[in-house]
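anyone seen this seq b4? input:
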Amino acid sequence: MPLGEALGRREEVRKFIREHRNDIEALEDAYVETRYEAVVYKDYDAEAIRKSAKLILDFVEEFVRKNGEHSKVANQEDEKEVSDDKELPQVSSSDKGGM
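predicted toks r here
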C-alpha cells in the first residue's frame, strides 16, 4: 500500500506529484545517469537538480512532520486511555470474598 494512502493523505501526495512531475523526473534521471556513469553537469543544470531535490526533500520532511504530529496526538489519546484504566478501584483480597 502506498504511504500516502496508508496515512490517509493520498490526495496530498498525488497533488504534489502532479504539480512537480518534471522535478521528480529530472531528479530520477540525474540519479540513474550518475549511478552508472560519470556525468558532468553545467552549473545551471546542477542548480536545477539541486532545487528539485530540495523541493522534494522539503515535501517529504513536511509530510513526516505532519504525520508525526498526528501520531503524537494518537499516542497521547492511547496513553490517556491506559491512564484511565489505572484509575479503576483496586480490589483487595477481602473484597473478593476470601479468594
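The helical segments are 3-6, 10-19, 21-36, 43-86. DSSP finds four helices and no strands in the chain. kinda curious what u guys think
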